[in-house]
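Summary of Year 1 activities. Much of the first year was spent building the evaluation harness for sequence design. The harness presents a backbone, in tokenized form, and records the residue chosen at every position. We chose the following record to illustrate the format because it has been used consistently in internal testing since the harness was completed.
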């Protein structure tokens, strides 16, 4: 056997199949700078584009949150140092303008929910992993995939530009409820800034739909030989169901935005009726209902929670099984819980609207559905804990962030039981209790899933390793700051402290919470500072990180069989066939710690001279076949045995 491989890089192909859907991808595919880095149709490059754009938008959203946390924690502070940045939004008293405070809340929420947690998370990892883990050369339509990124990029630019409009960015809250969003003359943030918000979201929805259709088409039609649906990694299941949710729900938000544009521009009355303002008196609108917009928005809004969460949970499943060196507990139950969550997510949107005065019977239906959706969520939590139980856990940064996902999913989910009950939700709805619940269960859990994915698949994206020490420091500071920021907010909410208020020092009732507000703001500053560690680690490692081997985590899935230096087409030569599910770790009947999906039972049973002293597992001058394909899976067994002997 005249084959050598780098340690941790032995995933190879013994049995291979022709896969001709994308002939021409490989070493002979010539690209210019523009076609490779800018208008790329390679799913791996598009994934990197989504990730870096999402990181930039995340930094902007984080900066906005620090600005309004300065206002909330230190309402009497002199903010003149922000005047060069914010201009006239720092008023003559050197305080943040109240109308701009609401604008910061609006744009921060929009950026984080849609541009970071939806596009940044799903756009990155669906693009990166679906073709690689399914055994495909690329997406079903690489050109449409490229368009999906550029629509996202344009929507990000429009949203960013809206911040600098002289009348101010959109200021109706991230949910942009009418009538504030429907009347351009209502407040300063209802003018051009609101129009740009709607344009940006329309572009964003176009991007999301193009991406989602591509993801589903690729999974259903372009799996390699042997890759049945029950052999798909849970990441692919999560990304696919997420895409289905987007296909079914995002058009509803698009319709809501179009109708809102009509009300603003051409005098229709979908959301307006008998509106009076101090500037204009009566406005001729008859028959509309602001509640219609809420129904349309939340019909997307609650599936959106799982459009954000499911990819993070899928990433957590993959990272946990790999780093615990155990098969994922209850694979079919995990798939079933994903499907159940997806179905139920379309039946619970009304619990966001308990305070609208809906019929109590209808409210009870939404209440029951909301409590039922906790069952598949609990199944996932139990399976994560069972996977960790007595595992040989490797505490990499990715694993720590994955455990953090489970922590936030549990603690944030428990507070959801309060808000899912109409009798509790009505007094708590407009308080800091909702802020705390929403940020822990959706914001923090999804962001931690994104970080877990970045640390785990960074070697596949950039061919280098991120610094583990900096990654651990990033985790602990971020994990602590999340709980220090949002856990105290539950107590503020229980005391009735309202959300979205500019200042609380004018209210005797809430003055007692001033010290806690300062503590929360300082904790938020700590959390934002921790992200600077991540940014340094991320961008520095691209150029100076330790070079990655082909399979640094000894993982079973197909993406680790592709060359470290990714090529357009993923595999040089034939695509590997699949013989097993992706979670064969630490099987008691086999000496190996891991069994790649490309290893057949015949390969395992083959007689291999494990005692050979001629094999050097640290060698780097691997011999490749004419197609550039590593030889066979026997190297995997050989390497593990050699490592165990050492």
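For this record, the design step produced the sequence shown next.
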């Amino acid at each position: 056997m005249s084959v050598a491989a780098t340690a941790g890089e032995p995933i190879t192909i013994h049995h291979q199949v022709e896969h001709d859907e994308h002939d021409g991808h490989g070493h002979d595919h010539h690209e210019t700078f523009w076609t490779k880095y800018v208008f790329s149709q390679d799913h791996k490059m598009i994934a990197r584009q989504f990730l870096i754009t999402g990181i930039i938008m995340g930094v902007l959203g984080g900066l906005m949150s620090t600005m309004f946390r300065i206002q909330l924690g230190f309402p009497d502070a002199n903010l003149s140092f922000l005047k060069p940045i914010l201009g006239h939004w720092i008023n003559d008293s050197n305080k943040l303008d109240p109308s701009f405070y609401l604008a910061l809340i609006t744009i921060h929420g929009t950026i984080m929910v849609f541009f970071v947690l939806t596009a940044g998370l799903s756009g990155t990892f669906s693009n990166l992993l679906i073709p690689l883990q399914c055994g495909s050369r690329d997406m079903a339509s690489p050109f449409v995939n490229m368009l999906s990124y550029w629509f996202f990029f344009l929507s990000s630019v429009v949203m960013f530009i809206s911040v600098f409009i002289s009348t101010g960015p959109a200021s109706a809250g991230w949910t942009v409820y009418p009538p504030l969003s429907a009347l351009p003359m209502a407040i300063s943030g209802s003018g051009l800034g609101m129009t740009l918000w709607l344009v940006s979201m329309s572009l964003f929805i176009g991007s999301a739909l193009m991406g989602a259709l591509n993801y589903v088409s690729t999974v259903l039609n372009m799996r390699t030989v042997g890759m049945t649906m029950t052999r798909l990694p849970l990441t692919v299941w999560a990304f696919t169901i997420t895409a289905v949710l987007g296909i079914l729900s995002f058009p509803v938000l698009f319709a809501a935005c179009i109708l809102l544009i009509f009300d603003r521009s051409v005098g229709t009355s979908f959301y307006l009726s008998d509106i009076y303002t101090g500037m204009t008196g009566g406005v001729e609108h008859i028959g509309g209902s602001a509640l219609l917009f809420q129904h349309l928005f939340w019909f997307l809004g609650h599936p959106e929670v799982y459009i954000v969460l499911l990819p993070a949970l899928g990433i957590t499943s993959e990272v946990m099984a790999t780093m615990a060196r155990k098969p994922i507990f209850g694979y079919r139950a995990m798939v079933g819980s994903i499907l159940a969550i997806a179905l139920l997510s379309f039946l619970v949107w009304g619990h966001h609207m308990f305070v609208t005065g809906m019929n109590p019977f209808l409210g009870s239906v939404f209440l029951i559905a909301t409590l039922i959706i906790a069952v598949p969520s609990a199944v996932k939590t139990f399976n994560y804990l069972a996977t960790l139980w007595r595992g040989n856990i490797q505490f990499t940064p990715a694993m720590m962030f994955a455990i953090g996902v489970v922590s936030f999913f549990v603690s944030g989910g428990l507070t959801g039981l309060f808000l899912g009950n109409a009798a509790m939700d009505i007094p708590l709805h407009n308080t800091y209790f909702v802020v705390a619940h929403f940020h822990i269960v959706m914001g923090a859990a999804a962001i931690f899933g994104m970080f877990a994915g970045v640390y785990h698949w960074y070697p596949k994206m950039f061919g280098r390793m991120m610094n583990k020490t900096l990654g651990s420091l990033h985790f602990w500071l971020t994990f602590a700051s999340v709980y220090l920021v949002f856990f105290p907010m539950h107590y503020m909410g229980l005391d009735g402290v309202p959300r979205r208020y500019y200042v609380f020092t004018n209210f005797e009732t809430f003055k007692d919470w001033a010290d806690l507000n300062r503590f929360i703001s300082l904790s938020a500053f700590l959390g934002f500072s921790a992200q600077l560690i991540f940014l340094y680690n991320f961008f520095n490692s691209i150029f100076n990180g330790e070079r990655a081997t082909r399979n640094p985590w000894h993982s079973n899935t197909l993406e680790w069989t592709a060359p470290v230096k990714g090529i357009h087409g993923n595999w040089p030569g034939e695509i590997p066939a699949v013989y097993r599910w992706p979670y064969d770790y630490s099987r008691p009947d086999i000496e190996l710690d891991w069994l790649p999906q490309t290893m057949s039972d015949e390969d395992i049973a083959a007689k291999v001279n494990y005692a050979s002293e001629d094999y050097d597992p640290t060698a780097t001058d691997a011999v490749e076949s004419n197609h550039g394909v590593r030889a066979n899976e026997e190297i995997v067994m050989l390497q593990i045995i050699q490592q165990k002997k050492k």
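The chain is about 60% helix and 0% strand. Quantitative recovery figures across the full test set are reported in Table 2.
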